Amino acid sequence: MRNEFTKNLLEWNRDLNNRLMPWKGESDPYRIWLSEIILQQTRVEQGTRYYEKFIALFPTVKALAEAPEKEVFKNWEGLGYYSRCRNLIATARKIAWNYGSIFPAAYDELLALPGIGPYTAAAIASFAFSLPYAVVDGNVERVLSRYFGISTPVGSAAGKKMYKEISGELLDKKNPGVYNQAIMDFGATICKPLNPLCSHCVMSKDCQAFQLGRTNQLPVKAAAPLRKKRCFYYFIADSGKNEIWIRERAGKDIWQNLYEFILYETGKLVPKETLQKTNFFRENFGDKGIRISHISPVYKQTLTHQSISGCFVYLDKALHHLSGYQPVSRDQLINYPFPKFITGYMKDFPSLR
Ligand code: SF4
Predict the structure, then answer these.
(1) Is 182 in contact with 13 (CB distance < 8 Å)?
(2) Which of 28, 97, 184, 274 is the most buried (most CB within 10 A)?
(3) Ligand 1 shell residues, CB under 6 Å
(4) Average pLDDT of 115-137?
């Protein structure tokens, strides 16, 4: 059955797979790496736009390594998951400075680079260097779970181990890149999460989920992690010279290296009057005779381990000084990388009024 799987998959790939993507068939490790990092938690259509933009702006790993961080973050804006961008910069610099701008051709060395996990290392190793490492991601796990009728939850420790082992056995060791691309494409276009195309599927004869009517029950998912709830009040304050106070986020927290307005974080949303009575408000604004003029509706963003809600708050007078923040002209704000939570608001209210 395992031999049949690989044979049928490769035949399907040769005869029927017509999925096109700009990086498909690519053997340049820099381009493969870039596309894989951009595509993590990103739809292909959106990822394609960013991939093409990054290749045009930073055509080589050296160009990316030498680019100012602010420029890279600015061009990443909208993709989210900014730790990916931080790791992208760190890895580009490591390859440029430690490896003379040449990607290492060994799986373990790839895996040791920032932001490169087993999936990306296997993709680069197999596509660029024809090394026998199988990719395993949600697409692959879904296909294998259905075909072999595996109920072990994906995402669990036992599931991860099992899917890795099976993937390694199924891999066509002579053509690992072709096999890996084929199973990715098969999962994305045929054995889709919802409404898989079973009636057109070359695997249906041996597929356990199809034969037993279990396609909707597989794969079994591990319980979702509990998300920490955080509430951000962003004060949009003018310096008195048509400038807004912003700062770069530092410390080990979400959105590191991105910019933000004056932040007050609370455990929950509070009414305007309560907000004005907080120590934070009194010490930064209230003692200067400043009050809240209005507050935006609530904005929300869900991250992998956190759910953020918050509002944008306007003050009725200029704020002439604020330690830790810098005044930036309203026209120049567009040049700073902000998290999606803030750019979403700026799109709704471009003039920040
Ligand atoms: S028959 Fe359906 S569930 Fe089974 S591998 Fe094909 S598309 Fe997936």
Answers:
(1) yes
(2) 184
(3) 143, 146-147, 190-191, 196-198, 201, 203-204, 207, 209-210, 215
(4) 97
